[in-house]
Amino acid sequence: MSLPVPTMAAPPVGVVGLGQLGGSLAAALLAAGRDVRGWDVDPAAREAAAARGVRVTRELGGVVVLAVPLPAMAGALDGLDVDPAATVTDLGSVKGPVLAALAPSLGGRLVGGHPMCGTERSGHEATDPGLFRGARWALCLEPATELPRWLRAAEVALDAGAEVVPVTAAEHDDAVAAVSHVPHLLAAALAAAAGEAGPLALSLAAGSFRDGTRVVASDPAFVTAMVEGNAGPTAAALARVRAQLDRPWPDLVTAGHAVRAGSAGRRPVRVPVDRAALLALGRAGGAVRRRLAAFVEGWVPEGA
User: Fold this and answer.
1) In this structure, is the dihedral angle defined by the CA atoms of residues 239, 240, 246 and 249, taken in order, positive or negative?
2) How many angstroms separate the CA atoms of 89 and 34, rounded?
3) Predicted TM-score of the model (pTM)
4) pLDDT in tens, 202-253
């Protein structure tokens, strides 16, 4: 297996979908000096991307990034002229359904991805070239994933300012159910319950309520597609939350505080470009920060 080396010219990046995530990625990669092309079905999004320096075209190659809503993922490449040798990755918040929809046609060319960032805003007006800076970006390493293509997708994430977390699709979906999908449901429940408490309660709401319900402003269709697309892991994670709420309240408060207060420091690591070694890094809670020739540099929590 021949691996791309860091001294090789980086391939162009084609971004399909130029809303908040896709537009922000295109802007971040342009700032990093990458050749960026893109397409969106919305003429206003295409015009805004072109004004930022994106070459708007249906002809895409190199690394093609699907930055479209989950329901549109299966048909995202329809009508586009995509190089048959291109690596294809995506930014979808659920990985199992995306791989099931795309892997039959793309095979080892597909590298599932999910940057853990974004805001409650949406559309090309929410473009922010700094959106990915310091964010974790999950990148799937399945048995069929071609490692050279995984590295090309990882370079895109790193150039955008993110840190790459190697995972499998199943591991990703279990993890994000706990830290992303259930929080959206809890935020909705908290807001709905406060609404039932009446206008006085809402008028007294301050920082804790604001922070706990911020994501309720997200597009309901987006949130619904996300949680329903990951229904099994989300239901299991929600059951764990319900079990925690049944604990004596002093115990619950103490346990939650201990998790937040016990965040470990980091220690640097260097691991080989090898599927097992990369997945072990991700499972330890670590991330890749830099690509070398046959190694990657990153970090793991102290004690891992």
Assistant:
1) negative
2) 17
3) 0.91
4) 999 999 999 999 999 888 998 999 999 999 999 999 999 999 999 999 999 9
Pair of tokens at residue 193: 């319950």
Residue 266, judged by CB atoms within 10 A of its CB (0-12, 13-18, 19+), counts as middle
**From start to end of the chain, where are the E strands?**
13-16, 36-39, 55-56, 59-60, 63-66, 81-82, 87-90, 110-111, 113-115, 136-140, 163-167, 266-272, 287-291, 295-301
What percent of the chain has a predicted confidence (pLDDT) above 90? 86
DSSP state of 109: G
120 alpha-carbon distance from chain centroid: 15
Going by C-beta distance under 8 Å and a sequence separation of 6 or more, which residues neighbour residue 293? 5, 6
pLDDT of the residue at 160: 98
Size of the chain, expressed as the number of residues it contains? 304
Determine how β-strand 55-56 pairs with β-strand 63-66. Answer: unpaired
pLDDT confidence of residue 120: 60
| Torsional class of 208: left (φ above 0), alpha (ψ -120 to 50), beta (otherwise) | alpha
Residue 121 makes CB contacts below 8 A (sequence gap 6+) with 20, 217
DSSP class of residue 163 equals E
